[in-house]
Amino acid sequence: MYKDGFTHITSTDLSPVAIKAKQDRCAAMGLDGMTIAIADMFDLPFSDGKFDAVIEKGVMDVLFVNSGNPWNPSLKTKERVTAMLREAHRVLKPRGVFISIAFGQPHFRRPFFEAIGFSWSMQYATFGDNFHYFLYTLRKGTKKLDVASTLPPVEDKLAIADLVQEHMDNEDYLLSALIESD
């Protein structure tokens, strides 16, 4: 993202060890100006409406580990997922975008993404040949009254994207595909 001109980036983790490793890696790559901070995803230390975009990769998957029945996760899982999403929603600017890259299937994630209190609408794309993962995009302030009937999956929206497997393995592929489709 930085090399593509998105240089105003804040990267967070709960682990001081991970933060130090990220700082060292960014310094070695000459990625000046990035903010790298310790932050708890359930209580982000940022003001309301601070960010144009929030990206999570695999965080929700971790929250669903040992959650019980995927159709009806444990109360603790529901609370933690909702708390994380509430914080992401809070720190987004109006019309900001939350991006979630995960293995969790849409029918399991939709109830959380479209819960009462969130003003975003959900779209997703599926990637991968044998083992699928999902790129969810949720734009704040776009929720429709009857979301279930008005927002069909947009799996074919990114059909124009470069689907060469070697290119898809690059982490920048997902961002490039998302940006090119808007």
Distance between the termini: 16 Å
The averaged pLDDT comes out at 84
Coarse structural class: alpha/beta
Largest sheet: 4 strands, mixed
Q: Share of helix among residues?
A: 25-40%
Portion of residues in beta strands equals 15-25%
- Compute the number of helices: 7
The total beta strand count reads: 6
Tell me the Rg in angstroms.
17 Å
Which regions contain 5 or more consecutive residues with pLDDT less than 50?
A: 147-165
Q: Largest beta sheet: what is the strand line-up?
A: 3-4-6-5
Q: Can you write the helix and strand succession as a string? A: EHEEHHEHEEHHH
Shape annotation: globular
Task: Give an overview of the whole structure.
The chain has 182 residues and is an alpha/beta fold. The strands form two sheets. The chain has a four-stranded mixed sheet. A two-stranded parallel ribbon has the order 1-2. The protein has helices at 16-29, 59-63, 75-91, 106-113, 147-150, 165-168, 172-181, and strands at residues 10-13, 35-38, 51-57, 92-102, 121-127, 133-139. The model is unreliable at 147-165 (pLDDT under 50). The protein is globular, with a radius of gyration of 17 Å. The longest helix has 17 residues, at 75-91. It has seven helices and six strands; from the N terminus they run βαββααβαββααα. It is 34% helix and 22% strand.
